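User: Reviewer 2 asked us to show a designed sequence for the structure in our supplementary figure. I'm pasting the structure tokens here. Could you produce the per-position amino acids so we can include them in the response letter?
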């Protein structure tokens, strides 16, 4: 019997607003550095043994396993690695030079049980600000942390947990669908960060509608498992028709403390314009805006936005899409 996917997945988006403490340099893509630095601080503050997670006897009770790795007791069959699903880090700031006193923002999206460990994540980023991120150790201090509605939960030394307001993916879909349905135009999907996803056993070098929809559905399924509900990815009767697309290959370099080596993460970004949008696909593609799709999502990969655009807005100008 099919176990229907549920969107009743709790989440909260936290916006960290910070101040740079001295002239600093940071990589253009900062999510990998933020994620690696956060993990380093969580280990430093909470590990009670030798930081060898693979052989630790305290795995079930370990704060590191519940926060940085967001481990699942059960996983869908296709999940073979240690992909962290309980959180996402997002940063749209591509500046590489920061003057002392300048502002810097990034977001942390928490799902399921990860929501209960807010203080662990907060302390990790507080310590990371003191230690600095990236090769040049850019230091910062947290000015405030705001909730999904933009209201401050943390402001200076004050913490108001009454504003730690949790929503669900289902609520997000309902709000976004209402807005998108009120607009006219073609359905467009634009990747703001690289997508790393396999299609027919090969990493994609162009977009496929069925891969995008199934990828979004699998992400929701993984979060269902993470929140303790075993579900199945549905069989879709049809998929959006692609009118045209623009694709570019991208790569992000990062340092892995676990492997003690520099690693290059690869993917594609760009834009897809659809001719149609079947109703049973829409919910999953809207959910994917929030959850991201594909591999390396905890490094910020797979973030996209779904829009309605007039046909003249989707045209090519100077070989670039609007």
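Assistant: Here is a per-position design you can include in the supplement:
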């Amino acid at each position: 019997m099919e176990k229907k996917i549920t969107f009743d997945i709790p989440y909260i988006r936290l916006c960290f607003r910070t101040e740079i403490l001295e002239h600093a340099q940071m990589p253009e893509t900062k999510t990998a550095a933020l994620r690696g630095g956060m993990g380093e601080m969580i280990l430093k503050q909470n590990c009670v043994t030798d930081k060898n997670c693979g052989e630790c006897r305290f795995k079930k009770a370990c704060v590191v396993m519940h926060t940085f790795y967001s481990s699942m007791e059960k996983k869908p069959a296709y999940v073979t690695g240690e992909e962290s699903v309980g959180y996402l880090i997002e940063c749209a700031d591509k500046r590489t030079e920061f003057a002392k006193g300048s502002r810097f923002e990034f977001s942390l999206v928490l799902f399921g049980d990860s929501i209960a460990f807010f203080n662990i994540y907060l302390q990790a980023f507080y310590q990371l600000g003191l230690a600095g991120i990236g090769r040049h150790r850019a230091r910062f201090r947290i000015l405030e942390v705001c909730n999904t509605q933009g209201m401050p939960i943390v402001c200076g030394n004050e913490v108001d947990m009454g504003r730690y307001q949790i929503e669900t993916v289902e609520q997000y879909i309902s709000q976004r669908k209402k807005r998108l349905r009120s607009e006219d135009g073609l359905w467009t999907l634009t990747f703001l960060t690289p997508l790393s996803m396999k299609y027919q056993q090969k990493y994609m070098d162009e977009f496929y509608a069925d891969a995008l929809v199934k990828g979004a559905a699998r992400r929701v399924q993984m979060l269902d498992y993470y929140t303790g509900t075993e579900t199945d990815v549905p069989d879709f009767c049809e998929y959006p028709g692609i009118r045209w697309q623009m694709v570019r290959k991208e790569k992000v370099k990062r340092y892995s403390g676990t492997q003690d080596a520099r690693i290059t993460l690869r993917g594609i970004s760009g834009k897809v314009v659809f001719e149609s949008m079947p109703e049973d696909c829409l919910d999953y593609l809207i959910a994917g805006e929030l959850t991201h799709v594909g591999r390396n999502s905890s490094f910020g990969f797979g973030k996209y936005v779904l829009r309605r655009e007039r046909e003249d807005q989707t045209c090519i100008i100077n070989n670039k899409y609007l």
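For the response letter, you might also mention the following. The first helix runs from residue 31 to 46. The radius of gyration is 20 Å.
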